[in-house]
Amino acid sequence: MEKITLASQLLQYFITGLTVGSVYAMVAVGFNIIYNVTEIINFAQGEFVMLGGLIMVFLHVAMGLSLILAFPATIVLVTLIGILIDRLAIRPIRCPSVLTLIIATIAVSIIIKGTASFIWGKNPFDLPAFSGRNPINILGAVIQPQYFWVIGFLVVTAVALSIFFDRTIMGKAMSACADNPNAASLVGINVKQMVLLSFALSAAIGAVAGITITPISLMEYDRGAMLAVKGFGAAILGGLGSFPGAILGGLIMGSIESFGAGLISSGYKDAFALIVLLVILFFKPSGLMGSVEISRIKRF
Amino acid sequence: MSADIEENVLELQGVIVTFGGLMALSDLNFKVRRGTIKAIIGPNGAGKTTLFNVITGSFPPTEGTVKFKGRPIQHLKAHKIAALGISRTFQTVELFGNMTVIENVMLGCHTKIRTSFMASGFAVPQSRRKEKQIEESALKILKFIGLADKFKDSADSLPLGEQKLLEIGRALASEPELICLDEPAAGLNETETHVASSLIKAINAKGTTVLLVEHDMKVVMNISNEILVLNYGEKIAEGPPEDVRNSHRVIDAYLGGVA
Amino acid sequence: MLRIAKLPIAVFALFIIVFPWIARQIPVIEHYTNIMVFVGIYCLITIGLSLLMGYAGQISIGHAAFFGIGAYVSGILTAKYGMNAWACMVIGMAIAAVVAALVGAPSLKLKGHYLAMATIAFGIIVFIIFNEEIEWTGGPDGMSGIPGLSLFGFEFNSVKRYYYLVWGFVLAVFIFTVNVIQSGTGRALRAIHASEPAASAMGVDVFRFKILVFVYSAVLASLAGSFYAHYLNFINPSTFDLFFSVKLLIMIALGGMHSIWGAIVGTGLITFLSNEWLRYFEEFEIIVYGAILLFVTVLLPDGLAGVPGVVKGWFRKQVSDER
Known about the structure:
heterotrimer, B: 6-stranded mixed sheet, globular, C: 14 helices
């Protein structure tokens, strides 16, 4: 009896870890999209997730828009905010050094956070789960159906992105920018447009993550920074710039956090992911799937 | 033995450098005699800058030894090697653009005269005296390289020719026994090139050994006592200019086997 | 030459000396002396950060942690163990130095984004520790009963006395730091900022200098934390969160990172903004900070210290356009 309980407990931690990890993975993918095109780490990445959750709450709960409509509408709104960030904060910088770009994206994240607290206040909001809250019992682990929605949307995002980057002209142009912006602009790719697109795309992915996780973990205005740091940890763990790495890194990060919180200390839940981040940065900054060569070539 | 150490400032034995699977330098052996100007030439990608980076400690060789005055230095960090008496310039100018001309040279004195963090913070008289001393010797160097009247300008604001001279001046400030110049004439016009090569001669006349990477054959043939030719990381010729000029392997390497 | 003139320092010192007297004459700003105590405390941190970020070019978004280490070491050792406050201050600085060296050694090998994220992660971890180690720190509720400071029976028990104590330290630290900037050490730091390969080829031990300045800035932040704890007699973790590190960043970015004067001006402006001018706009406060930071980054990359240059450039352009 005892044994079964422990096993189901571990399974519970694992599935919870995968769910939270899916969100980190989506944030990490968002980091990579912008980083690959611009070599900028967008410190405001976590704010997209927060906005996704809160705007969805507003449209779906407050305005009464149906799930099917509110979902895409939220994504569109957050995407527009991503575009605004590029136009208003990134592009106007005249001499973009690493330091100024870091500070600019931090400034953006503070503005978004402040605006969110102004609009929604400081309390967390709930969102109805997509398909109810009747838990499913798997081998003794109690799983909310929403968990599957989160993991499912990670899969959908990953598939959609790989189709986008491998099969569409636009996606291929973006990959070209990532490899060599000078050469890309020589063959007629509008690099500025690609930068804009990268912000739009990663905002959209952040929104998906926010919308799907809110029914599980609620959402409030100041969640962005921690999500950004953990998502960055996931991106580094997988190897900055690598998409499969980001997804793997996110899932590992989520699992470590879930097991750490369950087995060691729930108070230090947030610290586990950060310690992993520091360990990776200190000992293997190129990550699990990133190549050392690439991290040397990249300027930052 | 001791005579040998006296005579050869620098000695490389079996130096190999590989990047990934790529062989950048393969089993390189050569010596640099004290008080000479030795030039290293070779087509692009021959490994010349890699060689400089190994000598000055940017990264260690994969295998082999680098001896400076008889002492192995291949495992030392760049700043330690600089303190021993090897100084360098960079192929793409690496001046401190945020500093003035004289400050760049003053930084070059770093190895000679040090002040501790605490001493400089409390501005003890001794540290002020040292600062004065550094300023004077920097000014002397600026006079030597002909930039004394621009000492207050920002290093950024100089034209390329003068930036190259300033880099040499900065390298001289540590009073090195061996100075490694990476393409000092690259990008310079004829007059500037002339100024640069007479400066190199003048440095050498003061007793400093010069190791030189240069593409401008006129400069190389003019000023160097000995030439080492690299191709794909291998030494293909070594000797006085007139011998190298007539070497078939060198001609082949440069003309891509047409001859 | 990078010479920081002596006259402005003297004028500044005079201003600091007479400020409490002026404030007392004008009832509306009488409480400004109290705010100036906080400005002084924060200046201790931003002077060190300016050396680290503006001169040596290394990013830290985790200095709230060192500020907190100083505050908690002083708070715990004096309130719980009744130790001598000045000794605790030194112990706090020593602990901050050791932590900074341990964290700095691997971190400062990182560049740009990686360093920024490493310091953020470090800061958050320390913040979590302040919250979780309730036995020591009192957890989220904070700890009270931290005694005030006294020296040889002289109690720093009024705002004015504490003001002079803190600003005395600020002036000393300011002059010390200016001396460092004007010495070979300062030159080495700026060289590292410009080109690490060239600096090390010229004999600068890049790694050692980075650690040195990181430790120095951490020690100053810890000192500030001790002063903070003894002034308020109460501390809680929320003072030392990520947002405080960002606020420090805003202070030096606003003043101008490449200028030590900028650090002081920026610190003064932001502290007065948050303690006085924005008091009634709590909801807007964060937005204002973000807007300031973005404005400075996009339009004034050298901060307020760069304004004279911008104005001169604009004026010159007008003149040449007329021709």
